[in-house]
Amino acid sequence: MIVPTPVSVHGGHSGQFCGHASDTLEAIVRTYIRKGYPWVGITEHMPPASDRFLYPEERAAGLDARALKERFADYIGTCRLLQKRYADAIRIFVGFETETTSGSIALVRELIATHSPDYVVGSVHHVDDIPFDSSQTDYDIAATQCGGLDGLYARYFDQQYEMIQALQPEVVGHLDIIRIFDPDYRSRVVKPAIWEKIMRNLELIKKLDLILDFNLRPLTKGADEPYLSTPILKAAKRLGIAVVPGDDSHGVKTIDVHMQTAIRILRLAGVSTNWRKPVGKRFPQRPNGT
């Protein structure tokens, strides 16, 4: 039996460029090499569209949107250097992860035009400009604004659909992260009104031929399954959508920890482990093949 190689289509957050991560970006890259990854996507967060969307850790560090935009440029430059430095050992795709807030779509397009990343991961961490994934308190506030958890899910998947339409990101990140603080998510995602929106989004992903991130971050926090939850993974398989593991690592300690679990789940689900690379369709290939 051929053993699938470990890869990550969504990972590489480092303490050098992310306030809630640890370790340098070079240490992150060297760990992927040591673990035998033939390729990896490094996808640091984009800067916020305005100071309004600063996270507490960023405010505490005395940063603002302008400083984070400068740090992002430093990230791209550093990642390009590492891409060349370690080209003989690993193929690095230099990317970034989006936000979905007021002003974010225009900023994503500006960052693409300025920095020419290899690809983009389209993610949603806010609903109607309210962050929901950093704490139970934020999650509850977002739910209240949406009239309850069903409303929160519905609005999340609507905004995700709008983001996918607008950006057509090469990878859709942690599609069902909206379940993050919901102990009853298994029953909620299959409610007809919510499931209809999930299927609509999956059908758009299929139509645009995008990759779904099989995100392992929940496993590092004690959850039973990654993002995608089982019914969503099965639906993606039926539609023939490419699903690729993403460790969403935030330091060397979270690299490769749950990769074999992910591979086992995907193989049991009948998902191809001939991993599709996140080569940006909108970006030309670079001379060195990256």
UniProtKB/TrEMBL annotation:
InterPro entries, alphabetized: Histidinol_P_phosphatase_HisJ, PHP_dom, Pol/histidinol_Pase-like
Annotated EC: 3.1.3.15
Catalysed reaction equations from the record: L-histidinol phosphate + H2O = L-histidinol + phosphate
Domain PHP positions: 13-215
One GO process term, biological-process aspect: L-histidine biosynthetic process
The protein's annotated pathway: Amino-acid biosynthesis; L-histidine biosynthesis; L-histidine from 5-phospho-alpha-D-ribose 1-diphosphate: step 8/9
Swiss-Prot/TrEMBL keywords: Amino-acid biosynthesis, Histidine biosynthesis, Hydrolase
UniProt-recorded Gene Ontology molecular function terms: histidinol-phosphatase activity
Name of one Pfam family that matches: PHP
Enzyme class: hydrolase
GO cellular component, one term: cytoplasm
Keyword Oxidoreductase: no
SUPFAM superfamilies assigned to the protein according to its UniProt record, in alphabetical order: PHP domain-like
Family statement: Belongs to the PHP hydrolase family. HisK subfamily.
Protein name: Histidinol-phosphatase
Lineage: Bacteria, Pseudomonadati, Thermodesulfobacteriota, Desulfobacteria, Desulfobacterales
